[in-house]
Write a structure and sequence with these properties.
Blueprint lengths: L4 E3 L7 H5 L2 H16 L16 H10 L4 E5 L6 H10 L16 E5 L4 H10 L5 E6 L6 H16 L9 E5 L5 H9 L2 E4 L13 H9 L4 H17 L7 H14 L4 E6 L5 H15 L7 E4 L10 H6 L4 E8 L28 H18 L4 E6 L4 H22 L7 H13 L6 H15 L6
Parallel strand pairs: 2-3, 2-4, 4-5, 5-6, 7-8, 7-9, 9-10
Antiparallel strand pairs: 1-10
Helix pairs in contact: 2-14, 3-8, 4-8, 4-11, 9-14, 10-14, 11-14, 15-16
């Protein structure tokens, strides 16, 4: 794999302090391999790059004939799909002709928002649309709400062969979706039992919709496999960028900088920052601990957030990511005839990719000058192979940072409590106590109100 470079000279941490984490990081990294080999809950993502993808390709072929594809899921069953779509397809994919696209137009139903639901239906012909529905438990309220509403629409339209239009991705043995798939006989893929949602993008959860859109998922997995080999082979903080970033994150968190600003200088990675935010926040926010992820995109957020970052409180660690080369570029003219544009002569003969990377370096320098801690990552280019490696890198980084913080990075008790209250408020049988609890908290919240 081409090298993923990490520069941390402006991270404002004594290297000797980072070395103090080496022994713990070695143990935590080794525990990941042991946990995966033993099939421990939450550790299955470690081995996903080696899993076969032939069945995913086969199911994807069954969906490619449709004009549109609607993917139904939320959280880890949706953010990864959007991330792969945005990073690896044309920014205006749905507006391309069928000949120019490599698959159906793609729509995502994640939030249980009626405006979103009806707006997606406005854009598709249901008779020419395929559907993927993803829920490991088969009971995720938002996903099942969208699915139930959509299933009713399909029956109302009396569409033939409904089972051939739907692919269910769920637990292999249990849950409402598994029972539904068995009842109607639709195609199914399995969510690996020991893989959590936010770590599932390199499983059928994320790979199926990407394969339908023509993404080379074998290259994604190849990149992830190569990254896995390097990360687990490098057992020194001197030669493992993930260990360095984990130690930096921990050291700055202890120093009161418990926010991590992740700022790629690529517009296509906007959804990657959303995927990372869930991965980082839901994995590390436990037991009163945590490092808050802040999403930004360069150079856009130079004009909206960098004022705060350079001149505001010193409570953040900054991670900026750039791409060395781009397959597409725009070149500026060598000379200008208009005198009114002479002030722009510094751009002449340059190209847009170089300009974007100079803007990243300008932000890095400005943050360093203001005394803020900065790390910089540079990847060769954003294609399926390197994206697969980057995904695995951040999953591994998150898991070992959880180990340093002494939290379980693979559970989400705070999320589960909200789900319990939601189902109770909707009238789930047997949840009367939880309903009374939730209503009591809501009465307290409403006890003081200000109305205009």
């Amino acid at each position: 794999m081409s090298r993923l470079k990490l520069f941390y000279g402006a991270a404002l941490v004594d290297e000797a302090k980072l070395e103090n984490y080496e022994e713990v990081l070695s143990r935590v990294s080794g525990d990941l391999l042991i946990g995966a080999s033993e099939g421990k809950d939450g550790y299955g993502w470690v081995d996903l790059p080696e899993k076969g993808h032939e069945q995913i390709i086969k199911v994807a072929e069954a969906l490619k004939s449709f004009d549109s594809l609607i993917h139904i899921g939320i959280g880890g069953s949706a953010l990864g799909n959007k991330m792969l779509f945005d990073c690896l397809t044309h920014p205006f994919y749905n507006e391309l002709s069928r000949e120019e696209r490599k698959g159906p137009r793609f729509y995502l139903l994640d939030n249980s928002d009626p405006h979103l639901f009806l707006s997606v239906l406005d854009m598709v012909d249901l008779s020419r649309t395929g559907f993927i529905v993803v829920s490991k438990s088969g009971t995720t309220a938002e996903t099942m709400a969208n699915f139930l509403a959509l299933w009713e629409k399909l029956k109302e339209n009396k569409l033939p062969n409904l089972a051939q239009r739907i692919v269910v991705i769920t637990d292999p043995n249990r849950g409402a979706l598994r029972k539904f798939a068995n009842e109607i006989g639709c195609l199914t893929l399995e969510v690996p039992q020991n893989v959590g949602g936010r770590f599932s993008v390199l499983s059928p959860v994320g790979l199926l919709s990407a394969a339908v859109q023509g993404v080379a998922i074998e290259e994604l997995l190849h990149g992830a496999k190569d990254m896995k080999k390097k990360l687990f082979e490098r057992n020194s903080i001197d030669n493992n960028p993930a260990w360095i970033l984990a130690a930096l994150s921990m050291e700055h968190c202890l120093a009161g900088r418990n926010m991590l600003v992740f700022m790629p200088y690529l517009s296509r990675m906007n959804s990657f920052t959303e995927w990372f935010a869930q991965l980082w926040a839901e994995s590390l926010g436990k037991d009163g601990k945590g490092i808050t992820p802040i999403r930004a995109i360069g150079a856009i957020d130079q004009h909206s957030q960098v004022q705060l970052y350079t001149s505001g409180p010193n409570d953040k660690l900054f991670l900026i990511l750039t791409e060395e080369k781009s397959k597409r570029n725009v070149f500026f003219p060598e000379k200008l005839e208009e005198d009114s544009l002479n002030s722009l002569s510094y751009l002449l003969g340059k190209d847009m990719k170089s300009m974007l990377n100079c803007e990243a370096q300008g932000t890095l320098a400005a943050l360093a000058k203001s005394g803020k801690p900065v790390a910089w990552m540079e990847m060769p280019n954003l294609d399926a192979y390197h994206l697969g490696g980057l995904i695995y890198f951040f999953e591994y980084l998150t898991a070992i940072t959880g180990g340093l913080m002494k939290v379980n990075p693979f559970d989400q008790p705070g999320v589960e409590q909200g789900k319990v209250y939601t189902r109770a408020l909707l009238g789930k049988e047997g949840a009367e106590t939880e309903k009374k609890e939730a209503e009591s908290y809501m009465r307290h919240i409403r006890s003081l109100a200000s109305v205009i």
